[in-house]
Amino acid sequence: MSTADPLPPEALDAWLFALATKLGLDPDDIPVGLLLDVARDVAHNVARPAAPLSTFLVGLAAAQNGGTPADIEHAAALASELALGWAPPKL
Fold first, then answer.
1. Structural element, H or E, at residue 19
2. Which of 45, 63, 82, 91 has the smallest number of CB atoms closer than 10 Å to its CB?
3. CB 45, CB 54: distance < 8 Å
């Protein structure tokens, strides 16, 4: 497998565990399904490249607001709500 090949779905847990550990985070605190839902909503309703940036912003907002699971859920809900109702500005 080259570095350009996508990560197979069964490797997702191993990757997230390794990355969380490397970043000093508890892997059990990562709401994988919730973040994937936000990424899906953004990718399908806004633009694919906006998905990873949006999940980053969700994490950043949650961290700045306390970093609790409720803070993550709130930020994710706001992002999905915006994405699901997104109408690009008219130029």
1. helix 12-22
2. 91
3. no
Quick one: CA dihedral 44, 45, 48, 53, positive or negative?
negative
pLDDT tens column, 60-73: 999 999 999 999 99
Reduced to 3 states (helix: H, G, I; strand: E, B; else coil), residue 53 is: helix
The label of the residue with tokens 């565990």 reads 17
State the DSSP code for 5: S
Per-residue pLDDT tens digits for 29-42? 999 999 999 999 99
Say if residues 76 and 35 touch (Cβ distance below 8 Å): yes
Supply angle C-alpha 40, 45, 46, rounded to 5. Answer: 100
